[in-house]
Amino acid sequence: MSVARTRIAVYPGTFDPITNGHIDLVNRASPLFDRLIVGVAESAGKGTVLPLQMRVDLTRAAVSAYGNVEVLGFNSLLAHFVRDLGAGVLIRGLRAVSDFEYEFQLASMNRHLIPEVETLFLTPAEQYSFISSSLVREISRLGGDVSGFVPPAVADALQAEWQRTLHDTTLGKT
Predict the structure, then answer these.
(1) CATH number for the domain including 125?
(2) pTM for the whole structure
(3) Looking at the 3D structure of the chain, how many domains does it have?
(4) Can you give the residue range of the structural domain that contains 49?
(5) Contact yes or no for 55/48 (Cβ under 8 A)
(6) Which of 2, 9, 67, 136 is the most exposed place for a label (fewest CB within 10 A)?
(7) Is the CB of residue 74 less than 8 Å from the CB of residue 39?
(8) pLDDT tens per residue across span 81-102
(9) Which positions are catalytic?
């Protein structure tokens, strides 16, 4: 008699900020697993706008309706994070064909680093396929309305961050 293995998946990203497209992928992935862990990466090299703890908090709030979803921040190699959690699946989103080459490269590298983990690609609903965190950040930074792309708390956090940045720049702080 074999013992059933808990199905744990990790959905990693910087979530800078979390968008409605990310939430749609959580909605699609959560019924497939016993636990879905949204891993919010520090990723200093990516030049994130929002601090890690704020991204974790905003992501937690955005996915709080899902009982089997938890949000954890991490600043290690993804392979180590996934292995430490005992996860067997990585969730990655594909919005368009242009995402595929990069995601395929990541999946291949992860297959070498953590061969016991499979990568599962999911696509968001069509109404979210054009939304990216970088576009949301740019629209928000320039004073545009991002309320159709992110939860209200995220739109508010972005606006506050741009106000803080403007204030710091005015005072000569950077």
Answers:
(1) 3.40.50.620
(2) 0.90
(3) 1
(4) 8-129
(5) yes
(6) 2
(7) yes
(8) 999 999 999 999 998 877 888 9
(9) 22, 46, 95, 133
